[in-house]
Write a structure and sequence with these properties.
239 residues, alpha+beta, Muramoyl-pentapeptide Carboxypeptidase, domain 2, two-stranded antiparallel sheet, 6 helices, 40% helix, 15% strand, Trafficking protein particle complex subunit, TRAPP-I_su5
Length: 239
């Protein structure tokens, strides 16, 4: 079931201005965003060994970039391939979410490894809001090269939080047919967020919904619905 609009009453927890985005992410205004790059061939000489991707230093490749157009083409092919094998919009979004979940587990593993290898006292967040802020900033920068635009909390439902992306990079070159206007290809991103949430110990159901505005026609809301166990633990930690 599509989620046409966010809750009418929301409290803004974080709203990244354009100036702060440029400050946090040098690539925010470019047409490139961060993704693991394909290693170049060491030599053009016949018989020269190709470098093994597993031998690369993960810390030295943390700012590697690939062409955004190349990623857009690859993601478009994934969507088209998946679309031919589903029975409807809900099934397509579910499969994109599953693909994103697989990526999210690897993103979290890589970020934790880098944190532990670069700090003598690595920190693990045990409170939900700091963890959500790290997803809004660090995970988005690791995957898309820029932080998300805002975090909102539902005033009516204590277990619902939202991450707002005004211009999702994966949506820029996706043309959705009019009869599938409810489809949100950002279900892939929702899967990434859900995997990170689960891995950090904050199980939740994460879905993506189109919430366009006149200024941002591709605006997307990533809806996070926490499990009751997370809210119960937060109440204990407040005491």
């Amino acid at each position: 079931m599509a989620y046409a609009q966010p809750h009418p009453r929301l409290s803004v927890l974080s709203n990244t201005s354009q100036s702060s985005v440029d400050h946090l992410s040098p690539t925010a205004s470019s047409t490139r965003f961060s993704l693991p790059s394909v290693p170049a061939v060491a030599s053009n000489k016949p018989g020269a060994p190709r470098p093994n991707i597993y031998d690369r230093n993960l810390n030295k490749t943390r700012v590697s970039e690939v062409s955004a157009s190349a990623f857009a083409f690859l993601f478009s092919e994934v969507v088209q391939y998946t679309q031919k094998r589903v029975s409807g919009i809900n099934d397509l979004e579910r499969r994109l979410n599953t693909l994103g979940y697989r990526i999210g587990t690897r993103v979290l593993e890589l970020m934790v490894w880098r944190s532990e290898s670069s700090s003598k006292t690595p920190k693990r967040e045990i409170r939900f809001l700091p963890a959500l802020m790290s997803i809004h900033t660090q995970v988005w920068k690791a995957v898309f090269g820029k932080p998300a635009d805002a975090i909102e909390k539902s005033v009516e439902n204590a277990d619902e939080y939202m991450i707002i992306d005004n211009d999702p990079p994966i949506e820029r070159h996706i043309s959705v047919p009019r009869d599938m206007s409810q489809l949100s290809c950002s279900s892939f991103t929702a899967g990434i967020v859900e995997a990170v949430m689960d891995g950090l110990g904050f199980p939740a159901r994460v879905t993506a919904h189109n919430t366009p505005t006149a200024q941002f026609p591709s605006r997307t809301t990533i809806l996070i619905k926490l499990e009751k166990s997370v809210l119960d633990r937060e109440e204990v930690l407040k005491q």
